[in-house]
Amino acid sequence: MVQRVDLIIVGAGMAGLSAAAEAADHGASVLVLEKEAECGGSSLLSGRYMAFAGTDLQEAAGFDDTSESLVADMLAVGEGKNEPALVGAYGRHQLETYRWLKAKGVQFHAVQAVSGHSIPRGHQITPAQAIETLKQSAIASGKVEVLTEAPVKRLKKNAEGRVTTVVYEQEGAVFEAEATHGILLTAGGFSRSQQLLSDVAPQLDGAIRIGGKGNVGDGIRMAVEQGAWTRDYAYLKGTYGFHPTADGPRKSQALAFYKGAIIVNKEAKRFVNESISYKLIGTEALRQEKGETYQIWDQDVMDAGVEGDALYDFRKLLDLGLIESAPSLEALAARMNLPADALKKTVSGYNAAVRNDNDVFGRRTLTHHFGKPVVLDRAPFYAMRTRVAMLATYAGVAVNEQAQVLNPFGETIEGLFAAGEMVGGFHGAGYMTGSSLGKAAIFGRIAVRTALKSAVVS
């Protein structure tokens, strides 16, 4: 017997569970299908930030921010390649979504200056807490069923050409389920698919692979089979800031450069403006010999670390032995097997550029338009070997601002919606920290509202 519900959601990360909780608010019956044993996907591996503007946390910290400023920053970071309608929808719904998440019980701990923003608006969460909170909110309604280890294999259209049915597996058996109002794909990207990455982004072959283990692009494939167009493959970039051991069980990451550190290659030479997006930094880092680079900083930058923060808890990484410390630049160079004279020259030249505001790479801020660079002259000194990683792909299915999937002619594919990492067109040529989890929650909710306005005509 085919199960029939109002809405089927494929994938249980931030987008899928935000959608499920939103649907529960509307009293809709929902089936959530997650192929992994646990919910969360790549959302659990994120940098823990969501990008919002005009919040109570910002106000308490003395930051005056607006949706318009947030949208302007997104378009600037995306270099005009992102779809304005999608970014505009984010701006219109972001503050409401922040308040909705808080009302659901998602905990926001602090607001930080993060990549791509002209003002601190990285709202820190604990992803596991957010995922579990949204899941329990949805299930508590009695209208939402969440099945894990239930991979969806294909989608089917009805006789009228509307996507209505999913085919999925569980415990070795094959099942079908039908949605009267729509199927929402929130199945993540393809950072773990060597085939897809080699096909569309061979320039990333040197990046380590650390995305969610289920992120192999199956949601994108299913959408394409139904006629979906795709966006943004040309702008795929790795994420800079990970320790080389991040492809193991611990996804250790540090963005000391946004607190004032510099980045050098094996020759101890800088090669990039450290204030730009860590995606753009990643592109330049992969061009260095073997993709090996190093973050270098002093005690003042070390003191700017933030305890408990996934990106800025430098002390924790030092205690884990992932950051090296030395009383002088010469000693640090010896520890890192870098040429000492070159490192001293690089740091000396950088310090002079900071004092004279004439950096050869154009660095004028700590991150995007926020903060002032600092000289690196207070011992001890620190370094971390740093690599580029494929954590998330941020490219894929084309959608409109209502989260409806589009075909190559910009027409909607009836009954099919998408949100989260598997969607293309939103980020464009660059990436702004916090916008991935932000868009997941925002467009997951938008998709539900759109879907519940429509239904299969019997």
TrEMBL record:
Sample GO molecular function, one term: steroid dehydrogenase activity, acting on the CH-CH group of donors
Keywords: FAD, Flavoprotein, Oxidoreductase
Cofactors demanded by this protein: FAD
Pfam families from the UniProt entry: FAD_binding_2
InterPro entries reported for this sequence: FAD-dep_OxRdtase_2_FAD-bd, FAD-oxidoreductase_2, FAD/NAD-bd_sf, Succ_DH/fumarate_Rdtase_cat_sf
Residue intervals of the FAD-dependent oxidoreductase 2 FAD-binding domain: 6-437
Transmembrane segments: none
PANTHER family: 3-OXOSTEROID 1-DEHYDROGENASE (PTHR43400:SF10), FUMARATE REDUCTASE (PTHR43400)
The name this protein goes by in its record: Succinate dehydrogenase
Species of provenance: Bhargavaea cecembensis
